Amino acid sequence: MRIDLREQVAIVTGASRGIGRAIARALAEAGAKVVLSSRRAENLAPVVEEIRALGGEALAVPAHTGRMAEVERLVEETVKAFGRVDILVNNAATNPHFGPTLEADEGQWQKILEVNLLGYWRMAKAVVPVMRAQGRGKILNIASVAGLRPSPGMGLYGISKAGVIMLTQLLALELAPDRIQVNAIAPGVIRTRFSELLWSTPEIAERILRATPQGRFGEPEDVARLALFLVSPAADFITGAVYVVDGGLSLTGGLA
Ligand SMILES: NC(=O)c1ccc[n+]([C@@H]2O[C@H](COP(=O)([O-])OP(=O)(O)OC[C@H]3O[C@@H](n4cnc5c(N)ncnc54)[C@H](OP(=O)(O)O)[C@@H]3O)[C@@H](O)[C@H]2O)c1
């Protein structure tokens, strides 16, 4: 099966590094015009260069997904540059709190919900009118295995990701008549800056690897390959689904 995304326009949030960068590259390699977003333009510039060097088309539009005005501007700039939006990959997330859930403070709750949950909702809200007018679209939300089962120490984050999964299912239902498919990927531990504490602290890393049947951490490309399929026409009959990419970690008890 060849995935051809020529003539399609994609927005990827959190595209300056890690999983978002790998997804943006994979979409560009399949021919999509990719709008890369994150908070800081200087973080996006090298990824734009990388994609252009591969012969792809990419544009950087910085936006903080916690702010509606910036999210709306991101969608407006995309339409201005490329005339449409076929694909939204909601990927930008944060985790300001590790530790027991009741030890978090309200500021940490607000930050995590603003970005991880409302940020995905804001992006969908801004993009759906464009997709509706086109008569089709794909939204892919990057969730986490921490949103499927409790991961002690990562309670706020897990709750925000459980919210992302419910948001995915609700939007899938609500947007099916508009021919917009909404799916989620729930990664396990993928080697990025975000999860560095988990894979670079020897005691934690060893425990996770013991609990992972495949005996390795994931790489951003492990997620990107599935993302490419889910936003492509090959997945037109798939909506409201949540795919785990974790080397089997959640079969043995997850991060608990
Ligand atoms: N790595 C894992 O093990 C793992 C596991 C499960 C799920 N995930 C999920 O996968 C996604 C990507 O994570 P990652 O590991 O690739 O993280 P990462 O390497 O830390 O990248 C995070 C990206 O998000 C951007 N970002 C952060 N806050 C933002 C905001 N408020 N507005 C816009 N952009 C923002 C960052 O760029 P700037 O700093 O320039 O804004 C960066 O591009 C997240 O949804 C994460 O929850 C990761």
Q: Which fold name is given in CATH as the topology?
A: Rossmann fold
How many domains make up the 3D coordinates?
1
Helix content: 40-55%
Averaging pLDDT over every residue, what do you get? Answer: 97
Instruction: List the ions, cofactors and other small molecules found in this model.
Output: NADP nicotinamide-adenine-dinucleotide phosphate
**Low-pLDDT stretches:** none
Question: Overview of this structure, please?
Answer:
It is a single chain. 48% of the residues are buried. This protein has a single domain, classed as Rossmann fold, CATH 3.40.50.720. With 256 residues, the chain is an alpha/beta fold. A 7-stranded parallel β-sheet has the order 3-2-1-4-5-6-7, sandwiched between helices. Helix 1 crosses helix 8 (220-230) and helix 4 (106-134) packs parallel to helix 5 (155-175). Helices cover 45% and strands 14% of the residues. It has helices at 18-29, 41-53, 68-82, 106-134, 155-175, 196-200, 202-210, 220-230, and strands spanning 9-13, 33-37, 57-60, 87-90, 137-142, 180-187, 242-245. It binds NADP nicotinamide-adenine-dinucleotide phosphate (NAP). NADP nicotinamide-adenine-dinucleotide phosphate (NAP) is lined by residues 13-20, 38-40, 43, 64-66, 91-94, 115, 142, 144, 187, 189-190, 192-195.
